[in-house]
Write a structure and sequence with these properties.
Layout lengths: L1 E3 L4 H24 L10 H28 L10 E3 L5 H6 L3 H8 L8 H10 L3 H6 L12 H22 L4 H5 L18 H10 L1
Antiparallel strand pairs: 1-2
């Protein structure tokens, strides 16, 4: 089990959302450009973003479950949460208690059964490991994006509910929890890549 700060679950949630949004954006972009000449393969990006977002949402739910069961009722709860290590999506789901699994099932649409949900998690249990090194495989790879959509939407809904209605974090915990930041600056006269030169010549 991996131990993290309970207050870091906020960062975990935002990170999962980032990969989920990247999945949706890249998926739409890929479909919009279907049939056109492309200089990149977006499907591995779509798949990796989807599978990693799924992993992070499951670990977030584990983190909440751990704190609720082990710390919430204490007089002085600790700023600690825990989730299973590893990338196996099916194992991460099956290690959740039955009540939490059932809660996730209630967020599935009518055309996605519990069996389909579990079969998809089993089929793609090692999806992140496989798709991030897709170029190492000698066989064709495929992915059912509709099933992935159902999984991600259900996990996002449950995670959002936890963050909105269950998340309890002391002010001093938040003050002592590291956060991420980025700085951007405008840079001019960056040399064009070979692909950008070709595209520019074609457009002219």
């Amino acid at each position: 089990m991996k131990k993290i700060k309970y207050s870091s679950l906020t960062i975990l949630f935002l990170s999962a959302n980032g990969f989920y949004e990247n999945y949706k954006y890249t998926r739409k972009n890929m479909l919009d450009n279907m049939g056109q000449i492309c200089y990149e393969n977006q499907l591995p990006v779509v798949a990796c973003s989807a599978f990693f977002a799924t992993e992070l949402y499951l670990k977030l739910i584990h983190g909440f479950t751990y704190w609720e069961q082990n710390e919430k009722t204490k007089l002085n709860p600790e700023n600690i949460a825990s989730y299973p290590e590893g990338h196996n999506l099916y194992d991460l789901f099956k290690e959740l208690d039955r009540d939490t699994q059932d809660l996730i099932f209630t967020h599935l649409p009518s055309d996605c059964s519990e069996k389909r949900f579990l079969n998809s998690l089993k089929e793609y249990e090692k999806g992140f490991m496989a798709w991030r090194y897709i170029f190492e495989y000698d066989k064709n790879m495929d992915i059912n994006l509709c099933s992935i959509d159902f999984i991600l939407k259900a996990l996002y809904e449950v995670s959002s509910h936890y963050m909105k209605y269950k998340h309890i974090s002391k002010e001093e915990w938040l003050e002592n929890t590291p956060h991420t930041s980025a700085t951007f600056k405008e840079v001019h006269n960056i040399p064009l890549t070979d692909i950008e030169k070709v595209l520019k010549e074609e457009n002219n």
